[in-house]
TrEMBL record, chain A:
It is found in: Cell membrane; Membrane, Coated pit. It comes from Scleropages formosus. Keywords: Cell membrane, Coated pit, Endocytosis, Membrane, Protein transport, Signal, Transport. This is AP-2 complex subunit alpha. One of its GO terms (biological process) is clathrin-dependent endocytosis.
From TrEMBL, chain B:
Belongs to the adaptor complexes small subunit family. Subunit of clathrin-associated adaptor protein complex 1 that plays a role in protein sorting in the late-Golgi/trans-Golgi network (TGN) and/or endosomes. The AP complexes mediate both the recruitment of clathrin to membranes and the recognition of sorting signals within the cytosolic tails of transmembrane cargo molecules. Keywords: Coated pit, Cytoplasmic vesicle, Golgi apparatus, Membrane, Protein transport, Transport. It comes from Scleropages formosus. One of its GO terms (molecular function) is clathrin adaptor activity. This is AP complex subunit sigma. The gene is ap1s2. One of its GO terms (biological process) is intracellular protein transport. The keyword Kinase does not apply. Transmembrane segments: none annotated.
Length: 990, 149
């Protein structure tokens, strides 16, 4: 005891006083959310600084089973820890001590080993790196003393290392514990698997655990761990966890007597149902009857599974969640029972609370929200949907911020149902109020989302106006998204386009910095496509430009629109051509290069529209600041436009500078951007339903496009308009008339730079390993390569085809997810000689971009620089996998998530001869499986991509259609990037 | 649930539990970002926030923040009560738990968590059953060392 106090005292001095404060369960109902400063926080809990001391010492005695060394070192660490350096010094000393103990001649007993492993863990958790002790921890696993084993497992769980040598030892220890039939040991082992969840563990145990889970004599606690352990393995390696024969017994765990077993098993069942709904569909009726029993039970029936007077809230939520994997039950009785449950849950929300504690209402409302999610998911019971909406409406004004937040969120999905859309709309004033008054930005964000979701033609003007006025004060973090939303709503519900133009210009005025290119591109696309709005647009933007300080985006839109349609307002002397030009040019010097480039294009368009401005504009173009501008792009435009205006005839000028043709109708690029920002699905809900509700009648393309017109088929929006950044100005100023210009400027046309990446040879190597990669007059590069698992070796042969030597020859490889070991090549290559380079390759992780090979040398004094794509593709690391038809289809089905699949339909470019195709597929590296596909014309293959980080199972199906000369290629793998990359590569091969 | 973090008002990480495979570098980055985000929030703000593509549910108990990252489909309120139940379990086991208990008996905090949550899902929600499991394990200790002497 004498030792204890000083130690604790040391600790005490250097921990912030608040660490002694109990977490406040008893102290108050809802634990105080703020304990701002030190004296207050203590008084809040009724402890004085010193009063807390005996309590802490008590724990250190009575419950501390961790070795005393811990307290000591932490005391020292933190007492020395005035400075970071001192702490690190102290830690390093401790680490050195432990290392010497581990390395010492004297074998350590289990107790000491545990003590030091525990210390290492503690040091790691303090935030320091630990690079040893793994072996000692593994040794502890096989101890028959529980605490030693337990600490060993904890170390492995926290500090797992993909060192394969160790994994084998760990797996061995786990295997022994699983076989021990000692439930405590079994649980420890299962927890470890669930915590680590690596592929090696899945390989070793995925077969065994289902057996433990369903065995009649397994203890409940072991079953619980087994279920969730399996869930974790299924999430990381779905291809290895095969339920097969166990399916129905697993489903029947929903009927288990033990509530804990049901609670654990249902998470597994939900996850499996999402992937294989058909095989698990019997769970629906079981889940409904279980739910019904819980919902109708009195608050005391379930004993310890009742939480603050709410019966089994976790299980209820999980049951409701499981039901969301399926459509409404077809069986009338089951459905009736379920509707009854949902009604009961809604009714309970109206009853007075059984407790004032926040835990009671949280648990109750958790179930309510989950039930509402299910009602929305079914989207078939108008009565329930409207009730749900009313319930959420009450929450919108609740005093708990959490509930207001969730109500707004949940209502967003309700807004997309045709049954409840109108009911949601009735809350518009409350939501607008929330947008204005909520103090928490995340709640305001939800309110903005909901306004967006509930918007339709009837309330668009009001909502857009509110959002615009909110934008003036909105938090920076959400401005960009708000701008996109306003732009989309304005476009979608524009009744007349003058309103649309006004809205977007307002948007630029209020939040110009957040208006992305897509937004102003879009307004221009629309103005160009609708001639009824062009005059109005020209007038409005002319007026907007009068403001002394206007945003650069406004100048861009103004420049473009006046350049195209300035003539429509030129009749008014207040906006005569020269006035327009002077107005635009007054902004010129304040703008960035891209905007100036755009303005120059507007000027040349002015020369065409208004011949009377020609002299003024030519003078501007001719002045040194333009024609000798240090920016190449601007200078080139000035020179070329000046030349064009002086030598081309009016006819040529009129053709070249003709009004822009209408843009093809397609998905709004803004919508695409919002989708990208929010992730797929985030906007689509309200978006898809829109067409249904409004029954067409959209004023523009956004509503008319077919579902197939996807972002992919749209060329990048930056190419739409003037192509400011990349294309040479001649082409961009006059799309469709470029050929004429080439004649005019034939000597001025920029030469394509020769230093691009050459990837001609690359695609030829996808299905073969040897051949000639590149050849020109000087150099030939040949390749031979071989691969095994995730390793490979590539021989590069550089042949000098000339009779002169190459000097300073270097070849380097850029690396991403592959590690190379390469020796530098000899800097001299004699004429006619061949140089060999060996690359040793290790694939660390899956990759999409091929490494680049850069070769430089001097040939007769001239520097040659060549960059090639190294023909190293992910399929080189395939290990073929043979399997039967049943296995194949089972795995195929397991990989049914949309992102796991990549598919392409494409025209045949090469021979469709069966033998040729076979040879190519074999060259790909997968196993070509015979007699699997019912259609003998089709090919199926299976293989595993071996990388250091992981192994990725892949399945392939190629369906040729000889008549149409087409293929359909489908790839499924557990990793989306792999499916996609393989599909892209292979589509070029056939 | 993807992960759970416990950290102090000073931003010191006290417990971390990851239910998805991430590299150490990513873990550190996530922790840093989240601790900063959560500590910057004002007391009366709501307990949920969107972060990357996850939902963060957090709650403060005295000097400690408990912070869970859940997926889009998961239920925020029930996660809030998962946190509360965990605090209750710690409190019952340690008897008026305080931050120091979690620092020095970190292994117990982990063991209790493993009994309660596994693979990111609730395994056993009965307080009695969880504590029974932990106490049984404690009984298995062959000798009681008095480490302080």
């Amino acid at each position: 005891m004498l030792v204890v106090f000083p130690v604790v005292f040391l600790v005490l001095v250097h921990f912030p006083p608040s660490t002694f404060v109990n977490l406040g369960l008893q102290a108050s109902d809802s634990p105080p959310d703020h304990t701002p400063t030190f004296p207050e926080c203590l008084s809040l809990f009724g402890h004085s600084h010193w009063a807390a001391l005996p309590q802490s010492t008590k724990h250190l005695h009575s419950n501390s089973q961790c070795p005393s060394g811990l307290v000591l070192i932490s005391g020292w660490v933190l007492s020395a820890g005035k400075s970071k350096e001192a702490e690190i010094k102290r830690i390093n000393k401790e680490l050195a001590n432990i290392r010497s103990k581990f390395k010492g001649d004297k074998a350590l007993d289990g107790y000491s080993k545990k003590k030091y492993v525990c210390k290492l863990l503690f040091i790691f958790l303090l935030g320091h790196d630990i690079d040893f002790g793994h072996m000692e921890a593994v040794n502890l696993l096989s101890s028959n003393k529980y605490t030693e084993k337990q600490i060993g497992y904890l170390f492995i769980s926290v500090l797992v290392n993909s060192n394969s040598e160790l994994i084998r030892l760990i797996n061995n220890a786990i295997k022994n514990d699983l076989a021990s039939r000692n439930p405590t040991f079994m649980c420890l082992a299962l927890h470890c698997i669930a915590n680590v969840g690596s592929r090696e563990m899945a390989e070793a145990f995925a077969g065994e655990i289902p057996r433990i889970l369903v065995a009649g004599d397994t203890m409940d606690s072991v079953k619980q761990s087994a279920a969730l352990c399996l869930l974790r393995l299924y999430k990381t390696s779905p291809d290895l966890v095969l339920m097969g024969e166990w399916t129905s017994r697993v489903v029947h765990l929903l009927n288990d007597q033990h509530m804990g077993v049901v609670t654990a098993a249902i998470s597994l069942i939900t996850c499996l149902s999402q992937k294989n709904p058909d095989e698990f569909k019997t769970c629906v009726s079981l889940a409904v009857s279980r739910l019904s029993r819980i919902v109708s039970s009195a608050s005391t029936d379930l004993q310890d599974y009742t939480y603050y007077f709410v019966p089994a809230p976790w299980l209820s939520c999980k049951l409701l969640r499981l039901l969301q994997c399926y459509p409404p039950p077809e069986d009338g009785a089951v459905k009736g029972r379920l509707v009854e449950c949902l009604e009961t849950i809604l009714n309970k929300a109206q009853e007075p609370p059984k407790s004032k504690k926040v835990q009671h209402s949280n648990a109750k409302n958790a179930i309510l929200f989950e039930a509402i999610s299910l009602i929305i998911h079914y989207d078939s019971e108008p009565n329930l949907l409207v009730r749900a909406c009313n319930q959420l409406g009450q929450f919108l004004q609740h005093r708990e911020t959490n509930l207001r937040y969730l109500a707004l969120e949940s209502m967003c999905t309700l807004a997309s149902s045709e049954f409840s859309h109108e009911a949601v709309k009735t809350h518009i004033e409350t939501v607008i109020n929330a947008l204005k008054t909520e103090r928490d930005v995340s709640v305001r964000q939800r309110a903005a989302d909901l306004l967006y979701a509930m918007c339709d033609r009837s309330n668009a003007k009001q909502i857009v106006a509110e959002m615009l006025s909110y934008l003036e004060t909105a938090d920076y973090s959400i401005r960009e998204e708000m701008v996109l939303k306003v732009a989309i709503l304005a476009e979608k519900y524009a009744v007349d386009y003058s309103w649309y133009v006004d809205t977007i210009l307002n948007l630029i005025r209020i939040a110009g910095d957040y208006v992305s290119e897509e937004v102003w591109y879009r307004v221009i696309q629309i103005v160009i496509n609708r001639d009824d709005v062009q005059g109005y647009a020209a007038k409005t933007v002319f007026e907007a430009l009068q403001a002394p300080a206007c945003h650069e985006n406004m100048v861009k839109v103004g420049g473009y629109i006046l350049g195209e349609f300035g003539n429509l307002i030129a009749g008014d002397p207040r906006s005569s051509p020269l006035v327009q030009f002077n107005l635009l040019h007054s902004k010129f010097h304040l703008c960035s290069v891209p905007t100036r480039a755009l303005l120059l294009s507007a000027y040349i368009k002015f020369i065409n529209l208004f011949p009377e401005t020609k002299a003024t504009i030519q003078e501007v173009l001719r002045c040194d600041s333009q024609i000798r501008n240090s920016d190449v792009e601007l200078q080139q435009r000035a020179v070329e436009y000046l030349k064009l205006s002086s030598i081309a005839s009016t006819d040529v000028l009129a053709t070249v500078l003709e009004e822009m043709p209408p843009f093809p109708e397609r998905e709004s690029s803004i919508l695409a951007k919002l989708k990208k920002k929010k992730g797929p699905g985030a906007v689509s809900v309200s978006d898809l339903d829109e067409g249904k509700r409004d029954g067409g009648g959209e004023l523009n393309g956004a509503g008319e496009r077919g579902p197939e017109s996807s972002v992919v088929s749209t060329p990048s929006p930056s190419a739409d308009l003037l192509g400011l950044r990349s294309a040479p100005p001649v082409g961009s100023a006059a799309q469709g008339a470029g050929s004429l210009l080439v004649d005019v400027f034939s000597e001025a046309g920029p030469l394509a730079p020769a230093s691009g990446v050459n990837d001609d040879g690359f695609l030829r190597f996808v299905c073969k390993n040897n051949g000639v990669l590149f050849e020109n007059q000087l150099l030939q590069i040949g390749i031979k390569s071989e691969y095994r698992q995730n390793l490979g070796r590539m021989y590069l042969f550089y042949g000098n085809k000339t009779s002169v030597q190459f000097v300073n020859f270097t070849s380097t490889v850029s690396v991403a997810l592959i590690s190379f070991i390469t020796k530098p090549v000899d800097p001299l290559v004699e004429g006619g000689a061949q140089l060999q380079q060996v690359l040793n390759i290790e694939c660390l992780s899956d990759f999409s971009d091929a490494p680049l090979l850069n070769i430089r040398f001097r040939y007769g004094g001239a520097l040659q620089n060549l960059t090639l794509k190294l023909p190293l593709t992910i399929n080189k690391f395939f290990q073929p996998t043979e399997m039967g038809s049943q296995d194949f289809f089972q795995r195929w089905k397991q990989l049914s998530l949309p992102q796991q699949e990549a598919q392409k339909i494409f025209k045949a470019n090469h021979s469709m001869d069966k033998e040729v195709l076979k040879a190519k597929l074999l060259g790909l590296g997968m196993a070509l499986l015979e007699n699997v596909d019912p259609n003998p014309e089709n090919f199926v293959c299976a293989g595993v991509v071996q990388t250091k980080a992981q192994q990725v199972g892949c399945l392939l199906r190629l369906e040729p259609n000889i008549q149409a000369q087409m293929y359909r290629l489908t790839l499924r793998s557990s990793k989306d990037t792999v499916s996609k990359r393989l599909c892209d590569l292979l589509a070029e091969q056939f | 649930m993807q992960f759970m973090l416990l950290f102090s008002r000073q931003g010191k990480l006290r417990l971390q539990k990851w239910y998805v495979p991430l590299s150490d570098k990513e873990k550190k980055k996530i922790t840093r970002e989240l601790v900063q985000t959560v500590l910057a929030r004002k007391p009366k703000m709501c307990s949920f926030l969107e972060w990357r593509d996850l939902k963060i549910v957090y709650k403060r108990y005295a000097s400690l923040y408990f912070c869970c990252a859940i997926e889009d489909q998961d239920n925020e309120l029930i996660t809030l009560e998962i946190i509360h139940r965990y605090v209750e379990l710690l409190d019952k086991y340690f008897g008026s738990v305080c931050e120091l208990d979690i620092i020095f008996n970190f292994e117990k905090a982990y063991f209790i968590l493993d009994e309660f949550l596994l693979g990111g899902e609730a395994q056993e929600t009965s307080k009695k059953n969880v504590l029974k499991a932990i106490e049984q394990a404690d009984l298995l200790q062959e000798v009681r060392h008095n480490y302080f002497l």
